[in-house]
Amino acid sequence: MTASSPAAPARTAVAQMQPEKPLFSHKKFWAHRFGNAPFLPMSRAEMDDLGWDACDIILVTGDAYVDHPSFGMALVGRLLEAQGFRVGIIAQPDWHSPEPFKALGKPTLFFGITGGNMDSMVNRYTSDRRLRHNDNYTPGGVGGKRPDRAVIVYAQRAREAYKDATIVLGGIEGSLRRIAHYDYWSDKVRRSILADAKGDILLYGNAERAVVEVAHRLARRESIETFDDIRGVALFKAAVPDDFVELHADDVADADEGARMTKDKAVVRLPAYEQVVEDPEAYARASRVLHRESNPGNARPLVQRHGDRELWVTPPPIPLATPEMDGVYELPYARAPHPSYGDAKIPAWEMIRFSVTIMRGCFGGCTFCSITEHEGRIIQNRSQDSVVREIETIRDKTEGFTGVISDIGGPTANMYRMACKDSEIEAKCRRLSCVYPEICPNLNTSHEKLIDLYRKVREVPGIKKVMVASGVRYDLAVKSPAYIKELVAHHVGGYLKIAPEHTEGGPLSKMMKPGIGTYDRFKELFDAAVQKAGKKYFLIPYFIAAHPGTTDEDMMNLALWLKRNGYRADQVQNFLPSPMALATAMYHSGKNPLKAVRRGGSEEVETVRGMRQRRLHKAFLRYHDAENWPLLRDALKAMGRADLIGPGKHHLVPNWQPAGTGNKGGEGKRVGQKHGFQKFTTKGLPMKPVKVQRGGG
Question: Phi, psi (5° rounding) for residue 181?
C-alpha cells in the first residue's frame, strides 16, 4: 500500500460481496464545499482559481479531455466530483518522463489510469499491425499522442513521479486485460495488466459503483487488501484464504446451463498464467470459464496464479438502475472540449457532439466483440424524460446545433428496455448470448418502448430530425415490423448500418451470429417500408474478413453473394483479435471455447493467421478491385474454381488485367472504365456500398 493509506490488519478470509448502495447515496467527501468546476482542471492555475491546494484524484487518460459523458474520463471525473472529491485531469501526457505527471501535484487519494475510450493498441495499429497515422481522440486527429500499452506506461510514469501514490487502473484497456490474455501485437500471452503496470487495484467493466466505493474507502484510509468485497475489481493476494473452497476450471467449464455448484464461499481457479502461456488448450478453457462466469446474478470470484501471487477477480458489477443512469448522464458536463485546445477539432467529439446515449450493454454475445466483456449482457437504460432533457440541453447549449440529433442509441440501436421476462431466471442463466443460436423465449423483444421514445423525442421543440446511426440488431428488428416502419419513416438518413458479418454457416457459428436468411427477411421488411415511405434509402451491411472458422471457400461464396446482390466493399479490414474475446481464444488456441474444452476432445477451429491468406480474404471482399485480381485468379485456380474467371456476369474476376494494376501485366483500360465498376457516390449509381469491420472494436 501507500504512505497515504496505511495498511489495515491482515485478514484470513475474503469478505462476502457487499450489498450495493445506490450510486448517489454515499455521504459526500468534505471537499464538496468547493462546488462544481466549469471544467475539471488540467493545470495548477485552474486549481488555484478553484481554491484547491491539491487534487484528491487525478485521472490520466490517452484521450483529449472533452467534458461530455461519451468520454469515459469526463464521466468518471464528474461522478467523483458529485461524490465531493476534487478531480483533476492529465490528458495525453508526454510519457517520456515523469514530469508531466507532476503537473497537478500528488493526489491525496489516487491516480486513476486509463488508455482512453479505445484500447491503445487498437487505436494505434490496424488489423495487419500497421501503424495508424491518425487518432480521432486527439486535437487535429494527429496520431502518436499516446504510447503503446498506454495503461502500463502511464502507471509506471505516475509511480516514478510519486513512488508512494496509489495507482488504480480502469477503462476498456484495463478491463480487457484483467487476466492473462493473448496479445495479438506481440503474438504471445501476457500477464494480467495489473501485474505489468504494477498497479494497486484494477476496476473492470462499467465501474461507476466500484470507483465510487474505492474512492470513499481510500478517503477513510482503508487498505486496498480489504477491497475484495467490491464487485468488478481485480487485485493480488498472497494465497486463497483457507475458508474458501476452490472449484477448478475443469469442474465448471462444462456444467449444464442450469447447474450451479453452489457453495457459500467458492472461488473458481483458472489455469495459471504459466500454464496458459505453454498450453493453448488451457487458454481456451480459461476463456470459456471467464465468459460463463460473467452473469452478476451467479458469477463467482475467479483466481489465477501469477508466479507466487494469486490474481483475485471479483464478480461483475451490478448494472445501474435507470435513476442511476439518469444521474450519471445528467451531471454538470460542460459538453465541450477543454478550452486549452482552442479551435482545434477533435474528430471523435465532432462525431458525437449531437448524439445521445440511451442505453448500455449488449446481450448479443458476438465472439469478436468487446462490448459484452466490458459492459455486460444486461441492458442499462435511461428514462425517456432524461433523454428528452439531454436533447433540450444539446439544443440550447451546444454550439453549432442545427436541429438534427445525429444518433440516438448505444452499443446497438434497438435493445432499449429489453430484458429477461423473469428476474429469477436471469439470475441463474449462464448463456453467452440471449439471441444465439436462437432468440431466448424468456427475452422480451418488444420495441414498443423504443418506438414510444422515438416519438417523444421527435416532439421536442426545435428538433428537426432524430437520426439512428447505431447499428440495428436485425434479428430483433424482424420481430417488430412496426419498429422497422417507424425507423424508415422518421430516423434513417439515406443509409442504415446492419451487420450480417458473413453469409456462410461455418464462420457465423463461430461468431454467434444468425444465418443470412434473417438478414434477407430484414431487408424485405426494410425495402417494403422504404417503398411505402417513398424514400430512397439503402442498407450498409458490415462483414468480417479472416474470422476464425472461415475457409477460403467461405470467402469465395461471400464474394459471389456480394456480386450477385450488387454490393461492393469500400473500406475493408480483417478480423482483429482483441484481448479476452472468445474469437481471440479461437484464433490463438485453434480450439472452440463455445463448446467443451477437454484434453484431446476439444473442437478444432480453422484460423486465418498467415498474411497471404489474410490478404486473400480481404481480396475476396474487394473482388471488384483490379489490384486484387491476380491474387484471386491464382487462388481460384488452386481451389479448382477457374470457372469463376472470365468476362461474363457470372464470373467473379475477369481474365484480363488493366495496365498499371495488380501484377502490371495484361491489356485493357483501368477499372472504372470497363465493366461498369464506377466509384460509388450517393447520386443513385447502381452499385451499393458495403463496409467490412474489424473484430473486437
Answer: -145, 150
Q: Residues near 476 by Cβ (< 8 Å), separated by ≥ 6? A: 414, 415, 418, 435, 439, 445, 447
Question: What's this model's pTM, rounded to 2 decimal places?
Answer: 0.91
- CA–CA separation, 461 and 444 (whole Å): 32
CA–CA distance, 647 with 210 (Å, rounded to integer): 62
Instruction: Quickly tell me which residue has 459538453 as its cell.
Output: 335
Cell of 425: 431466471
Contact 344, 415 (CB under 8 A): no
- In whole angstroms, how far apart are CA 455 and each of 382, 389, 489, 522, 697? 16, 15, 11, 22, 31
Q: How does pLDDT run across 164-206, given as a tens digit for each residue? A: 999 999 999 999 999 999 999 999 999 999 999 999 999 999 9
C-alpha cell at 605: 477451429
Q: Which three cell numbers stand for residue 14?
A: 475474503
Ordered by start, the domain boundaries in the chain are 239-307, 353-604+688-692
Q: Count Cβ neighbours within 10 Å for each residue of 366-376 and write b for 16 or more, e otherwise.
A: bbbbbbbbbbb
Give the separation between CA 631 and CA 407, rounded to whole angstroms.
40
Give CA–CA dist 149/37, Å, rounded.
31
Residue 590, SS3?
Answer: coil
Q: Is the peptide bond before 437 cis (omega within 30 degrees of 0)?
A: yes
Domain 353-604+688-692 class in CATH: alpha beta
DSSP state of 142: B
Q: Classify strands 181-183 and 188-190 as parallel, antiparallel or unpaired.
A: antiparallel
Q: How far apart are CA 644 and CA 72, in angstroms?
A: 49
Beta carbons of 659 and 668 less than 8 angstroms apart: yes
What is the CA 138 to chain-centroid distance, rounded?
A: 19
* Cα torsion angle, 572, 574, 575, 576, sign: negative
Among 166, 304, 210, CA closest to 18: 210
- Residue whose entry in the numeric block shows the C-alpha cell 476496476: 203
Angle (CA) 257-424-252 rounded to 5° is 25
Three-state DSSP state, 472: strand
Neighbouring-strand partners of residue 390: none
Contacts of 178 (CB under 8 A, 6+ apart): 192, 193, 194, 202, 204, 234, 313, 580
Q: What is the dihedral of CA 74, 80, 85, 91, to 10 degrees?
A: -30
Decide: residue 104, CB within 10 A, 0-12 exposed, 13-18 middle, 19+ buried. buried
For residue range 367-420, what is the model confidence (pLDDT) as tens digits? 999 888 889 999 999 999 999 999 999 999 999 999 999 999 999 999 999 999
C-alpha grid cell for residue 59? 485521472
Taking residue 225's Cβ as centre, other Cβ atoms within 10 Å add up to 18
